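Q: I have 129 residues here and want to know how they pack in 3D. Can you give me a structure?
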Amino acid sequence: MTEPEGTRFTRDHEWARWDGDLVRVGISDYAQDAVGDLVFIDLPNDGAVVSSGSAVAEVESTKTVSSVLAPVSGEIVEVHVEIGGNPDLINSDPYGEGWMFAIRPSDPGEFDRLLDSAAYAQHVKEVSG
C-alpha cells in the first residue's frame, strides 16, 4: 500500500501527516499487517497532553496487544471514535479512514525529525530481515 504524500513515520510504525495545523496519526500498513485483524482499540481522551514517544492508545488483535505512541508532543484535539466500533478500518485503510487521533503539536519541529517514506521503508527492511 502506498502512503499519501507528506506522511512521516516513527521507528515504532506510527504514521503522522499534517492536516491544517494538526498532525493526524495512525499505524502504518506494515504495523497493521504485522498485528493482524484488529478486534479492539483503546483510544486516547480528547484534551490529553502527550509527549513524543509516550504510549497514548492500544490496538488489540487476535495475536497481540500493541501500544500506539505519540509521534509528536502536544494536545490531542480530535479522536476518531468511529474506529472504536469498527477497528477493521485500520486494516483496510490505515492511511485514510484508519486514522486514530489528531494532535495540535507544541513543537512543530518534531514532525521534521520523523522518518520520511524512504527512510521508513529502509527501517522496515532492516527490522523484517
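Q: Anything worth noting?
A: The domain at 18-109 is CATH 2.40.50.100 (OB fold (Dihydrolipoamide Acetyltransferase, E2P)). The longest strand covers residues 55-61.
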